[in-house]
Amino acid sequence: MLETSNISALSATEIQAYKFILDNISLIPNMGISKLAKRAFCSNACIIRLLKKLGYASYNDFKYSIKQSLYTNTTQEIYNTHHAKDKIKAIFDSLDNSKILKICEFIKKSNAIYIYGRNMSSVPAKYMHEVLMSLDYPSILLEWKDVLLPLSNNSTENDLIILFTEHMHKAYFPVINNFSKNKSKIVWISNSRLNSSIANNISIYIHANEIDTDVTQHSSKLVSLLIAQLILDQIS
User: Can you give the residue ranges of the HTH rpiR-type domain (predicted)?
Assistant: First the structure.
């Protein structure tokens, strides 16, 4: 982004903003200039001056460049690490885009958004939560299974629960039944196939079909992360 030798060209405030950008680079594509300036404790004008010194014509030009860079680096890492280019392509070719658009509609219309993920599944859950918050869609991150049942008991038709899980364990079924009974919207993204006994109570189900890591044979959650990014791209 900027050669170290050119740091001297920046003011103290611009250096502060630049450091914030470096520390939060993955959030930049989904952040407006006013939001970035507020988070970096500077003005919109400061951001514009900084970007001109970085060689960008506009803030949108900067966001596009960062987004392309992040996408290229992420996908290249997936292909190189897992040798799974064909499988990744097959997974995304099979995704129903209407489901992605429907999830976006749920997010925009819901009064309360809950995002659940534990262990490795917390990675896509945390990412979606952080980006939605940066886009001014307040959401609550849940990482403990024990909180789901009491939450589902008091859910309403204006609530949305998004679950990222490795398995479609039967322990989740009472939770799903409660949310469904209260007419809440339920999105389940899992590495397991959809269980027919619970299918009618889920608003949208997406089979992530994760890729196992070469060493541990545990699913990497890279596909879930990319699904989350597809949703966030449509939201922003």
Answer: 1-73
